[in-house]
Amino acid sequence: MWKESWWLTKRELKMQIPGIIITLLVTILIGILVVPTINAFVLNIFGDSASYANRIIFDNHTFNIDSIIIDIIFLGLTPSFSTLFMWGPYLSFRTIKEDPFGKRLAVYRSLPISTNVLTASRILVMLSIFVLLSAAFYLTIILSVPAAFFDYFSFNYFLSFMLFWIGYALALGSVITYIESGTNGKVLFIFLFIITLCLIIVLLLVYQIWEVGVVEATILLISKSPIIPVIASIICSILGVITMTKLLKKRLLERDYL
């Protein structure tokens, strides 16, 4: 089964090389853009610096624009590393009507390909893209931060920080994969809208209650407990992938593509 699944995975990845290249370049750019803010967080927490580039004050609460942006990137964007978020269906509202993911699966279902192979190929495609984009994102950060960064926040701590967010992103990213292949374009956009709305609400509550960003709080958490949060995050990601794989297989067996 895995041999056939991997063959189908490689075939599909080859068909999407332009999208992979564009999404990869955008991911690297995003990694470069988050470096100054992450560096500022570390200096603010462990060094003598205490400054942010942009602030706004609303209802006697100070909001750091840089912190909000980086929270949106880590909470909202990194789960999208499981898909080519800068290519094809994600850039057009025609996806709602045309459902390109469903049409692709309809073609596969018309061929002598078992449900097990098709399900496994969806997961392998997701994992291949996720590993590539996540590696590009975090490697860009590692190579771009100032040398003094790791004097304040050791590489081992940063590795824990990275694994924590990778676990979170993979857990949520597996849900996106299920929605792509198990539902339709309309549900995909509704899901993205709901996730965006929930993200905004969560961030507003966090800043209202603690007046600190989620990513900044993660750096503090990892500096005090670098192992337990990572283990919990990785376990959640593994359970998420396993659960979505089972649900997707069941959905592919039941879905009518005609």
UniProtKB/TrEMBL annotation:
<keyword id="KW-1133">Transmembrane helix</keyword>
<keyword id="KW-0812">Transmembrane</keyword>
<feature type="transmembrane region" description="Helical">
    <location>
        <begin position="187"/>
        <end position="207"/>
    </location>
</feature>
<feature type="transmembrane region" description="Helical">
    <location>
        <begin position="67"/>
        <end position="87"/>
    </location>
</feature>
<feature type="transmembrane region" description="Helical">
    <location>
        <begin position="123"/>
        <end position="149"/>
    </location>
</feature>
<keyword id="KW-0472">Membrane</keyword>
<feature type="transmembrane region" description="Helical">
    <location>
        <begin position="155"/>
        <end position="175"/>
    </location>
</feature>
<feature type="transmembrane region" description="Helical">
    <location>
        <begin position="20"/>
        <end position="47"/>
    </location>
</feature>
<protein>
    <recommendedName>
        <fullName>ABC-2 family transporter protein</fullName>
    </recommendedName>
</protein>
<feature type="transmembrane region" description="Helical">
    <location>
        <begin position="227"/>
        <end position="248"/>
    </location>
</feature>
